[in-house]
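User: Please fill in residues for this 743-position structure.
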C-alpha cells in the first residue's frame, strides 16, 4: 500500500533521493524516537529512519536542521540506546549488514549551543567504502527540507577547515556552523587512501559532509576499512546562533563566534618549544656568508628571492631588512648584513615616477620591469614605514618620497586594485583572478595600514582620510575579501587601529570581516596524509585564497600583523576573536619550524622546484615556500630567502630578555605588559583566550645553571613545573591573566 503523500515539490526544484526520502519520512512521522533533549530555545531529537539515524535540532515554529548521523545503505537491523556515559548526552549502537555503527552525542549549552556528533563503524568484513550522501538539511517550520530558505555564506576550500556556515532565514531559525574535525578522521583517510578535498559544502538544501570515497570508475577501489576495527567516519561539530541577519559585519562576527565555540571542542595537537633564537643566528650567518643568498649590483648587496636564483626585488630586500632590524633591536646587537642590505635600497627608487620599483634598473629582459602586482607596491612601503617609525631617517625620506605615488594608484583604481598593472601609466595587465572579476581584493587593507603609518609619521590628516576610504571600499566582499593571507591580516590590523584613532565602532566590526575571511582559509585540523605526517599544519593558512599550499612568508607576516591587532585591542574585543588570533600565533611558533629543510626528512622534500626558482639546499637555514596539507612533497615552489625573516620575527616576539639574569623568557602568547617588581621578581600580563593555557619556558642564556623558580598566578596559586630540560624549565600558565615570576 502506498505511504502518505508529501506536499508537492516547489516548482522547477531538483531533489536528490536522500532529500526526498527525508521529506517523506518527516511528513509521515514514521521515524522511531531514540531520544530527546530540551536545550533552552532549541529541541534536540534523535530518530531512526529507513536508512539512517537522524539528529534533528529545531526552534519551535522557526524551523531547524536534520543531520544524518549514521547511514545504512541496506537498512538497519537494530538500533539501541546505550546507558549514559559521563559527558555524553546520548550513545547509540546500530547493527546493519555492513557492520556496527556507534553514534555519540555531546552537548554544550553554556553560551552558544554546541553539539558534537561522533560516528564510528566496525565493519562486518573488510569494507570497500562507496558513495554516501551529504548529511545535513535545513528544515522549514513544517520539517520540509525543500521549503527552507537561506544562504550558504562560506564552505570548505580545498583541504582547509571542513566547515560550512549558513543562515536559515525563512523561517528565521538562525545561523549555523557545521564543522567536521578531520583530525579525528586521519585513520579513515589512511585506510581508504582518500583525501577530504572540499568534503564539506553542497548545494542548498543538501549540504554538509560528503564522505571521501575512492573513485568508482576505472580501476576499482582496493583499500578497505579493516574488519572488526572501530574507525571514526564522522566527527561533526554544530554551533548555533539565533540571529540570521544579512548585515556583512554581523555575519562575520557570528561566524567568528561560532568558529571559536567549535574550536574549543575539536581535537587540538600539542605544540612544542622551538629555539627561534638559534635559528635566527644561523639564518643571519647564512645570509652573510652563502653565495647562494646574495648578489651584488651597483656596488651594493642584494638578496636573491630564492636560493641562488631570481632577480633582487624591493619586497624581498625590505622584508629582510625590516625583520633583521627587529632582531637587532631585540638582541641589542648589530648585524653587518642589515647595514649592507640597507645601503642598496635606494636603487629601487624611480625618481621620474617617484615610487619604488619592484626590480632594479638592470633587471634582465626576461622580466617585464614595468609590471607590478598591486600588493607589491604597498608591502615594501609598509616595511619602510616600520623602519621609519623606529627612527631610521633614510627609510623615512624614501617613504615620504614614495607615498604620493601609492595614493595616486589607489585613486586611479578607486581603491579596488587589479592583479597586475603597468607602473608607468596604470594600464591593467591582469584584471581579475577569476570569472567573478575579482582582483586583489584585500590590497586596500595593507594600503590602509601604510596610510596609518604615514599619519603616525606626519600628523597629516589626509593619510587618515585615505585609510578610511580604503577600508570603506573593502565593504561588501564578505568571504571573498581574502586574496593573500598576510594582506588580509594587515587589513584587520588597520581596521583596529582606525577604530582606536576614530572611536568609530564600524572599523572594529569591519576588522571581523577581514578576520572571518582569513580564518575561512585556515586548515583547523592536523593532517597525517602522506608526507604531512612529518610536519605540523594545524591552523595553517593557505598563501592565497585558492592556493594548494601554506607558505611561511604569509605565516610569519600574519603573525606580526596579529601582534599589532592584539596589542591595539582591549576588553571590547570579542572573546572568541581573541581566542582564534592567539591560537593562530601559538601554533605558528611550532608549525613554522617545519618549513626549514633540516627539520624534514629528505623524502618529504621535492627534488624539483619551479622553473627559475633555484634549488633546495638543506644546509641553509632558509625555509621552503610550500607545505601541503594533502601531504605532497614540500618545496615544489622553491626555498625562499625572503622567508628567512620568520626566525627574526618569532625570536623577537616570543623570547624576552631579563636583565642581570642567566635566562630569558619564552612564551607562546604575546606579553601585553611586564614589570620588574624586584631584583629577582617580575610580573607580566598575557592576552590569550579565556580558559586557555599558555606555554612558558625559562631558557638558560649562559653556562650558569638555571636558578630555582616560583611561578604563581594572580590569585597566588603556585604552578608546578610541566617539563624540565638541562637548558630550560617549562610551565603551563593561564593564557589570559597575570603571572608572577620569582627566582
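Assistant: Residues filled in for all 743 positions:
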Amino acid at each position: 500500500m502506498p505511504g502518505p503523500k508529501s506536499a508537492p515539490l516547489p516548482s522547477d526544484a531538483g531533489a536528490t533521493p536522500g532529500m526526498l526520502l527525508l521529506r517523506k519520512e518527516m511528513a509521515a512521522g514514521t521515524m522511531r524516537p531514540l531520544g530527546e533533549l530540551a536545550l533552552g530555545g532549541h529541541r534536540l531529537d534523535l530518530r531512526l529512519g529507513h536508512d539512517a539515524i537522524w539528529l534533528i535540532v529545531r526552534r519551535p515554529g522557526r524551523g531547524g536542521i536534520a543531520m544524518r548521523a549514521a547511514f545504512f545503505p541496506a537498512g538497519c537491523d537494530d538500533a539501541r540506546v546505550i546507558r549514559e556515559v559521563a559527558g555524553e548526552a546520548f550513545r547509540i549502537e546500530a547493527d546493519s549488514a555492513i557492520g556496527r555503527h556507534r553514534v555519540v552525542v555531546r552537548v554544550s549549552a553554556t553560551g552558544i549551543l554546541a553539539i558534537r556528533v561522533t560516528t564510528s563503524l566496525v565493519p562486518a568484513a573488510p569494507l570497500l567504502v562507496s558513495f554516501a550522501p551529504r548529511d545535513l538539511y535545513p528544515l522549514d517550520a513544517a520539517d520540509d527540507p525543500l521549503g527552507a530558505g537561506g544562504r550558504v555564506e562560506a564552505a570548505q576550500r580545498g583541504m582547509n577547515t571542513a566547515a560550512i556556515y549558513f543562515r536559515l532565514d525563512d523561517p528565521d531559525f538562525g545561523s549555523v556552523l557545521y564543522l567536521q574535525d578531520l583530525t579525528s578522521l586521519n585513520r579513515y583517510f589512511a585506510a581508504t587512501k582518500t583525501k577530504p578535498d572540499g568534503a564539506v559544502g553542497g548545494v542548498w538544501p543538501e549540504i554538509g559532509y560528503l564522505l571521501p570515497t575512492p573513485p568508482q570508475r576505472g580501476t576499482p577501489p582496493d583499500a578497505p576499512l579493516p574488519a572488526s576495527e572501530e574507525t571514526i567516519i564522522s566527527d561533526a561539530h554544530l554551533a548555533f546562533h539565533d540571529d540570521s541577519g544579512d548585515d556583512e559585519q554581523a555575519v562575520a562576527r557570528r561566524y567568528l563566534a561560532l568558529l571559536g565555540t567549535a574550536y574549543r571542542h575539536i581535537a587540538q595537537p600539542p605544540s612544542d618549544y622551538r629555539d627561534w633564537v638559534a635559528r635566527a643566528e644561523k639564518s643571519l650567518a647564512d645570509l652573510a656568508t652563502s653565495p647562494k643568498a646574495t648578489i651584488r649590483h651597483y656596488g651594493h648587496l642584494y638578496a636573491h628571492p630564492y636560493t641562488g636564483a631570481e632577480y633582487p626585488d624591493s619586497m624581498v630586500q625590505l622584508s629582510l631588512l625590516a625583520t633583521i632590524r627587529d632582531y637587532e633591536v631585540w638582541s641589542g646587537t648589530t648585524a653587518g648584513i642589515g647595514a649592507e642590505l640597507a645601503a642598496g635600497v635606494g636603487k629601487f627608487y624611480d625618481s621620474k615616477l617617484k615610487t619604488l620599483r619592484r626590480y632594479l634598473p638592470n633587471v634582465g629582459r626576461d622580466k617585464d620591469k614595468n609590471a607590478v602586482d598591486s600588493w607589491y607596491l604597498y608591502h615594501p612601503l609598509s616595511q619602510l614605514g616600520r623602519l621609519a617609525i623606529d627612527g631610521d631617517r633614510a627609510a623615512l625620506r624614501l617613504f615620504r618620497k614614495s607615498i604620493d605615488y601609492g595614493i595616486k594608484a589607489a585613486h586611479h583604481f578607486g581603491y579596488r586594485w587589479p592583479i597586475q598593472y603597468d607602473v608607468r601609466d596604470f594600464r591593467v595587465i591582469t584584471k581579475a583572478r577569476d570569472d567573478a572579476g575579482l582582483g586583489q581584493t584585500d590590497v586596500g587593507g595593507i594600503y590602509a595600514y601604510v596610510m596609518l603609518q604615514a599619519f603616525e609619521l606626519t600628523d597629516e590628516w589626509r593619510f587618515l582620510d585615505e585609510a578610511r576610504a580604503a577600508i570603506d571600499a573593502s565593504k561588501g566582499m564578505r568571504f571573498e575579501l581574502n586574496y593573500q593571507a598576510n594582506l588580509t591580516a594587515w587589513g584587520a590590523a588597520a581596521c583596529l587601529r582606525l577604530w582606536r584613532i576614530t572611536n568609530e565602532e564600524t572599523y572594529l566590526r569591519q576588522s571581523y570581516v577581514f578576520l572571518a575571511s582569513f580564518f575561512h582559509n585556515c586548515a583547523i585540523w592536523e593532517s597525517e596524509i602522506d608526507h604531512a605526517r612529518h610536519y605540523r599544519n594545524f591552523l595553517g593558512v593557505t598563501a592565497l585564497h585558492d592556493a594548494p599550499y601554506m607558505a611561511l612568508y604569509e605565516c610569519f607576516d600574519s603573525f606580526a600583523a596579529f601582534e599589532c591587532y592584539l596589542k591595539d585591542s582591549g576588553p571590547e574585543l570579542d572573546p572568541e576573536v581573541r581566542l582564534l588570533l592567539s591560537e593562530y600565533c601559538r601554533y605558528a611558533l611550532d608549525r613554522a619550524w617545519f618549513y626549514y629543510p633540516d627539520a624534514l626528512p629528505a623524502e618529504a622534500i621535492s627534488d624539483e622546484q619551479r622553473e627559475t626558482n633555484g634549488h633546495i639546499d638543506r644546509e641553509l637555514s632558509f625555509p621552503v615556500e610550500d607545505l601541503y596539507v594533502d601531504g605532497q612533497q614540500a618545496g615544489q615552489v622553491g626555498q625562499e630567502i625572503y622567508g628567512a625573516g620568520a626566525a627574526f620575527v618569532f625570536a623577537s616576539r616570543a623570547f624576552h630578555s631579563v636583565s642581570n639574569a642567566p635566562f630569558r623568557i619564552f612564551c607562546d602568547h604575546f606579553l601585553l605588559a611586564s614589570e620588574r617588581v624586584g631584583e629577582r621578581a617580575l610580573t607580566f600580563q598575557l592576552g590569550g583566550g579565556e580558559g586557555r593555557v599558555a606555554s612558558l619556558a625559562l631558557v638558560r642564556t649562559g653556562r650558569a645553571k638555571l636558578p630555582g623558580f616560583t611561578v604563581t598566578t594572580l590569585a597566588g596559586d603556585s604552578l608546578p613545573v610541566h617539563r624540565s630540560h638541562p637548558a630550560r624549565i617549562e610551565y603551563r600558565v593561564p593564557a589570559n591573566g597575570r603571572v608572577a615570576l620569582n627566582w
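For context: The chain has a mean pLDDT of 95.
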